[in-house]
Write a structure and sequence with these properties.
With 105 residues, the protein is mostly helical. The chain has a domain at 28-99. Helices cover 83% and strands 0% of the residues. Helix 3 runs antiparallel to helix 4. The protein is elongated and about 55 Å long.
């Protein structure tokens, strides 16, 4: 009778963490695009513009996200994927903080 034991190595734990991080990032990008597309009518009404104007803004946002993903992949190949990911996380959090700080209370 053979018994199977699974050992949890540090490499397997690291691979699981990387997979979860990347899956979460992909989920958030998909969620972001979905929320923007679902809320087109409400945003257009709140901003006081047409749905066509909002669709143009969403299209430009999606194109910019795709362009930055391609650029990020190239930067990751040059300086290393971990380092590029860490720099990207810092840049996004800094941009979020600065945009939050610029909004009057």
């Amino acid at each position: 009778m053979a018994t199977s034991t699974t050992s949890s190595s540090p490499a397997a734990a690291g691979a699981t963490l990387v997979l979860l991080t990347l899956a979460t990032g992909q989920f958030l990008m998909t969620l972001d695009s979905s929320v923007m597309n679902v809320s087109i009518a409400t945003v257009a009404k709140d901003v006081g513009t047409s749905v066509t104007g909002i669709q143009g803004a969403i299209t430009m946002y999606t194109l910019m996200m795709a362009a930055l993903m391609i650029t990020g992949a190239k930067v990751g190949a040059i300086i290393g994927r971990k380092r590029a990911f860490a720099i990207g996380c810092r840049c996004c959090s800094s941009a979020g903080r600065s945009s939050k700080a610029s909004v009057p209370p």
